[in-house]
Fold these 2 entries.
Entry 1:
Amino acid sequence: MNTSTTLAAAPLVRLSQVYKTFHAGTVNEVRPMRGINLDIAEGAFVIVLGGNGSGKSTLLNAIAGSFAIDAGRIELDGQDVSTWPEHRRAALIGRVFQNPFSGTAPNMSILDNFSLAAKRGKFRGLSWAHSRQLRDELSDRVRELKMGMEDRLDSAIGSLSGGQRQALTLLMATWLKPRLLLLDEHTAALDPKSADQVIALTDRVIQREGLTTLMVTHSMQQAVNLGDRIIMMHRGNVLHDFRDAQKQRLRVDDLLAHFENVRRRELLDESAADMLRSRYL
Ligand SMILES: Nc1ncnc2c1ncn2[C@@H]1O[C@H](COP(=O)(O)OP(=O)(O)OP(=O)(O)O)[C@@H](O)[C@H]1O
C-alpha cells in the first residue's frame, strides 16, 4: 500500500450527471444541461465562457436552485443540495447579475438597501440594521471602492450610475464571505470604464476573501486576465477545461481559435443534418 497517498480535498461544488430540459416535448424544447459533470475546488476562480445559448447562465441558475434539475446531483459545501429551494441555498451563495437594476430597490437609499439586506438576514449576527455601526462600516467599505459614493449613503440607489450600482451589489453579495460567488455577466451592461472598475474591484474582493467563484463573461480579455481556470460550454456541456499553467498560458487568440473550431463543428453538424433531412424528409 502506498502510505504517501493523501486524500484529495472534497470539491466545494460538484455536479454529477446533471440534466435540464426546458419546454420538453414541444417545438421550443431546449436542453441546456446534458449530463454535466463538474468539480470546483474551494478557492477556485472559474471563468465560464461559451457561445449564446450554450448553457452558461443555466449552469449558474442550477447551482443557485432557480429551478429543479431533471436528473443528477448538485453538491455544495459537502451537502447534497439538489432538492433544496433557492432561498435555502442563498445562505451559502452570493450572486450578481448583468442588470445593475436587479438586486436593489432603486427608490431607497444606499443605507436603506443595506439595512433591508441586514433585516432579511443577509448579514446575520449583526443587529445593526439602520444603526450607527452599519453607517460607519458601510461608509468605510464604500470609501474603499473609490467611486465617490461615501458621501452619498442617503442618496437613492436609482440615482447612481450602473457601475456604482454594480459595485454596491458586489459589496452586498460578498459582505458575509459567501461559500460561493456567482457572477453572471455582471459587467456586460456597463460602459467600458465602469466595467474595468467593477472588474478590478471583483478581482480584489475575490483575492482578498479567497472566494470560490464562477464568473460568466463574453469577454476573452477578462477570461485571459482573471481567474485560475476557464471552462468553455457548448450545447449544454463542458467542452474545454483549462486550468493552472495551461490557463495562465492562454491568450485571447487561443480562445478565439477554440471558438472558431466550435463554430466550424456546428456548421459541419448543420450541413450533415441538412443532408440527412434532404435524404429522408
Ligand atoms: N427558465 C428558462 N425557461 C426556458 N428556457 C430557458 C430558461 N433558461 C434558459 N433557457 C434556455 O436555455 C438555453 C441556454 O440558455 P442560457 O441562458 O443558459 O445560455 P447562455 O450560455 O447563458 O447564453 P447567453 O450568452 O446568450 O446569455 C437557451 O436556449 C435559453 O433560452
Entry 2:
Amino acid sequence: MVLSVKNLSVTYAENVAVERISIQLEAGQAIGLLGANGAGKSSTIAAVLGIETSTYDELVIVGKSPFRDRKEVFEQVGVQFQETRFQDKLTVSDACKQWQALYKKTADVPALLQTFGLAGKEKQLVKLLSGGERQRLAVLLALIPDPKLVFLDELTTGLDTKARRMLWKQLLAMKEDGLAIVLTSHYMDEIEALCDKILILRKGQTVFHGTIQEVLIASGKATLEDAYLHFAGEEEQWG
Ligand SMILES: Nc1ncnc2c1ncn2[C@@H]1O[C@H](COP(=O)(O)OP(=O)(O)OP(=O)(O)O)[C@@H](O)[C@H]1O
C-alpha cells in the first residue's frame, strides 16, 4: 500500500474542513479527489503530507509517517501545487537544478524536459514561460524525485488540448511503471482518463468513494459529470 489513511479529520479553529476521510492507494493506482471549491481537497492533501495538523486513526504514506519519517517521505513523494511560485531571475534549468539538489536520487531531467515539451527552453526565465509551459514545469518538478506517489493539484488547468493529452499519456505510462497518483481536478474527462477510483467530498464529508462505474450506477446518471454534480451537491445552486 502506497497510501493508507483512516478516519482523518482537519479542523480550523472550530470549523471541520475534512471529517473522517479514508483513502487506500496501491502502486500504479490513481485516485481523483473531487469536490466543489472549499470542499476540503487541499486540506486533505496538506494533512496527508503532514503540513497541516489533523487527527486520524492511521496515516501511512509510502510505508512511513509524514511526521516521524519526514525525510524519507519527502524523498519518495512528489507534490505539484496549484500555483507554484518561482523567483524572478530563475531559468528553467536553474529551477530543475535547485529541485534536483533537494533529493538524493532523481529522475532523468533532460528526458523529462523532452517529455514535457520544455527541451530547448532551459535558458528561458520561468516568468517568461507561457502559463501552460509554467504549469508543465510545475508537474515536471513534482516528478524530479522519481516518486512512488505524486500529488497533482489541478493538473491541467490552463493547458491546451494537445498539452493535456500529452501529459495524460505520460502519466499513464508512469502509472504502468508503478507510480501512484492523487489527483484533484475539476475536469471530469481528466478524471476518467487517469483515475481508477474517485472520492467526492462535500463540505468535508465523503459522499462517494468508489470506481467511476460505481458512481454512475449509484447516481443513476449517464455521465461522470452528472454523477459528480449529483453527489457534490452542485446542482442548481452555489456553494
Ligand atoms: N488555513 C486555513 N484556516 C482556516 N480555514 C481554512 C484554511 N484552509 C482552508 N480553510 C477552509 O477549509 C475549507 C476547505 O478548504 P480547502 O482549501 O481544503 O478546499 P478545496 O476543496 O481544496 O477548495 P478549492 O477547490 O477551492 O481549492 C474551506 O471552507 C476553507 O475556507
